[in-house]
Amino acid sequence: MSLRGIWVFSSLEKAAECVIFSRRFPTVERRAVLHQEGNVLTQIPSDEELCDSVLKELGSRRNLAAGLEEFDRDVDSCSKLEHKPVYEVRLKTGSLWPVVVIEKFGLVFICIPLVEADLSHANPPLVKLPGVSLGYSLLHSIMDFIGNWSSKEQLQSKVCELYKVLCAVAPFGTPVDTNFSSIQALINNKDVIIPQKGKQPAWKPVQHKGKQHLMFNVKEEIRAAQHVKKECQDERQLFGIINCRADLEGIPEITANITSLSLDFLVVHPSVLEGDTHVQAPSFQPSQLLKGPELMGRKLRFRPPTESFPLCHYSAKTPHGLPVQGIYQMQGDGNSVQVSVQLKLSTKLKNSFEYFEVHLPFFHRGPVVRVDSAGPSTGSMLLSPDKRRLVWDVGQKFPSKTLEASLNATVHFGEKRQQAAENQPIATGFIEDPFCTGINSYAQVFFKIQDFTMSGCAIDPRSLVVYPSGKYKLTITYEFSTADYKIWNTNGDALFAFPPPAINS
Question: Are 378 and 480 in contact (CB under 8 A)?
Fold first, then answer.
């Protein structure tokens, strides 16, 4: 993992003064010749030619004969794939690759890593070239060393020191230490007072100070569609997200066990260091979960960033069916319709809601002028301000004995105005569904339950391990809500995707 050369160019100076710093490593260049055949290796040109070629690759038209309005195929064409900050620089003698280029402080920092692979057939993937990552890190250290300069004298002073520093940082072109503060202390014959324990991670630039608090929020949602026709099976998707916020001192490492009855897929945050997919024996049985041998766990070990972040996304199966079974019936004409909604709450669902509403939208009709109804069996009914939806507020609980609720009503519509219908989506937010014409319609269910998840997904508090250990407050919250829950009219058609027919071999 060595570098063929390091350069610093100025994009603000004239052509004769654009090269600010140049350092080549002949021993690395000799190794490059040995690794490549003579007709494959592209020799590094003069500093001025390299500067002009790199600035052209970056899109600068300075030093070029082409005018600003003239199309340049090499620069303006979109057929070339970009892998910034790695470029393929075109020269008179061929193409130079890979070239790592970073622009900052009005300067262009460049290095050419050594490729210890055969380039006669094709360029290897960048992920297989560790010299590219090492050169990128070294260029960032050089940028931090030079800093934001305000005068040419200050820049020249830093450049003169850079020659001396690189002798210790990258002797013979091989970086050995990119910590410029410790290297500069050794050059000036000074002791390094503070031992370097590692660079502060970019994802946690500021450490927490104060009371320590660890919070988890498990938010689960369900998407479902129901229709009583035999050819249309009920569709449902259960998915969720676990958000975490760790107000802990230092750079802690946390291990948590996620338990569930039916956890399916799990996608973790980049901060997760380890994820065990095998079954873990949980150390608790929370009251909100169904006790049984199916309870399983997934262990995650992670280093949290400062802010709140999604620890993982998951999907789960619904072995107990839909949380709410419903039947929606609507029939009538353009002037009035009769609607009937029947709901049955599952015994597996917690009968305590933050809210539970059923919306009955009426598409491609005039505004609702009158509703004849004796009222729902539980809750209340009202008309939305746009007069296009009937809203049934079921309340916070279903009747405990039957777990059932129903609504019957006759809805009368006014005259449909074409001009009003065109402007209505902008004025009220009501968007006409092109499929829901005639009696094709649905009832949409909205609910939210606190301290409950249908999949049983939970954080095992006894499995939490925080290193380094210390006192902290732990808060774990749960919520279960609907994402898109439709009950289609049994008298009309429904939008369903039929599975492809099985092909017998």
Answer: no
Instruction: Give CA–CA dist 427/318, Å, rounded.
Output: 39
| Exposed/middle/buried for residue 138 (C-beta within 10 Å: 0-12, 13-18, 19+) | buried
**What is the chain's pLDDT, residue by residue, as a tens digit (505 residues)?**
789 999 998 876 655 568 888 899 988 888 888 887 656 788 888 888 888 888 888 876 444 444 455 666 666 667 667 788 888 888 888 888 899 999 888 889 999 998 887 777 778 888 788 888 888 888 888 888 888 887 888 888 888 888 878 887 788 888 876 666 656 655 565 544 434 444 566 656 566 778 899 999 999 999 999 887 766 778 889 999 999 999 988 888 999 999 887 787 888 888 888 665 444 444 444 444 434 445 567 888 998 888 888 999 999 887 778 999 999 999 988 889 999 999 999 998 999 999 999 999 999 888 999 999 888 999 999 998 888 999 999 999 999 999 999 999 999 998 877 644 444 544 456 788 888 888 999 999 999 999 999 988 999 898 899 988 889 999 999 999 999 999 999 988 888 766 666 665 4
List all residues 6 or more positions away from 495 whose beta carbon is below 8 Å from its beta carbon.
225, 435, 488
Q: Is the separation of the CB atoms in 36 and 119 below 8 Å? A: yes
3-state SS assignment for residue 253: strand
For every residue of 294-317, DSSP letters joined together read: T-EEEEEEE---SS-EEEEEEEE-
Q: Are 256 and 308 in contact (CB under 8 A)?
A: no
Q: How far apart are CA 29 and CA 173, in angstroms?
A: 10
User: 3-class SS at 195?
Assistant: coil
Residues ≥6 apart with Cβ < 8 Å to 331: 337, 338, 439, 491
In whole angstroms, give the CA distance from residue 235 to residue 233.
Answer: 6
Predicted model pTM = 0.58
Q: How far is CA 486 from CA 108, 303, 392, 433, 473, in A?
A: 57, 40, 14, 14, 40
Instruction: Say what the alpha-carbon torsion angle 456, 457, 458, 459 is, to the nearest 10 degrees.
Output: 150
Residue 317: exposure state from Cβ atoms within 10 A (0-12, 13-18, ≥19) = middle
Beta bridge partners of 381: 392
Q: Which residue type occupies 239?
A: F
- Count CB-CB contacts under 10 A for residue 97: 17
